[in-house]
Design goal:
This protein has six helices and four strands. With about 170 residues, the protein is α/β, with parallel strands linked by helices. It has a four-stranded mixed sheet, sandwiched between helices. Helix 2 packs across helix 6 and helix 5 crosses helix 6. The longest helix is centred in the first third of the chain and has 16 residues. The radius of gyration is 16 Å and the shape is globular.
């Protein structure tokens, strides 16, 4: 793990998050830092920054449409700044790892459908999003997808959260 300081900025754009999940900001910070501790590798920079935005389905739908060509809301979107080879790098300035954006309605509906608390589902999605910011991808490589799931399960287990994929270790 890097020795850089890690800053997690959490913005709540949809108050439904704070109504349904008191402590949402702290949950996001805690899970993002835990994920960085386990999977952060040797990132360089005086300070690493991650932004987490808790917003509405409508806002995520617009982002998903504009950036991924899918005109529907989704639970979480990750925008990894390190994927942009043309992003400016300022020596000594914080290194932005990227943004994680989560849709309240989709997340709440998924949690209910899966018989999970919103807190546990949101924790999983934050860990999942941070892994994407670190370069992990579950869509292109099955082995990488399995390793990503293993990391998520390990991170969540540290907080007493069951395997989000419903499998038990044997």
């Amino acid at each position: 793990m890097s020795t850089a300081e890690i800053e997690i900025a959490v913005s709540i754009e949809d108050e439904a998050w704070t109504t349904a999940l008191p402590g949402a900001e702290e949950l996001c910070r805690t899970l993002a830092l835990a994920t960085m501790a386990i999977a952060g590798g040797e990132l360089d920079g005086p300070t690493l920054e991650i932004s987490v935005v808790l917003t509405s389905d409508e806002a995520v739908r617009a982002l998903n449409r504009d950036w991924r060509g899918q005109d529907k809301p989704t639970n979480v979107l990750s925008f990894a700044a390190l994927d942009d080879d043309e992003a400016p790098v300022v020596v000594g300035a914080p290194v932005l790892l990227g943004d994680i954006v989560m849709a309240f309605g989709v997340c709440a509906d998924e949690a209910a459908a899966q018989g999970k608390t919103l807190a546990h589902h949101a924790a999983h999605l934050v860990a999942h999003g941070v892994l994407h910011l670190l370069g992990w991808d579950h869509e292109e490589d099955e082995a990488e997808a399995e390793e990503m799931e293993r990391l998520e399960t390990t991170i969540l287990a540290g907080f007493g959260i069951e395997n989000p994929y419903g499998e038990t270790e044997g």
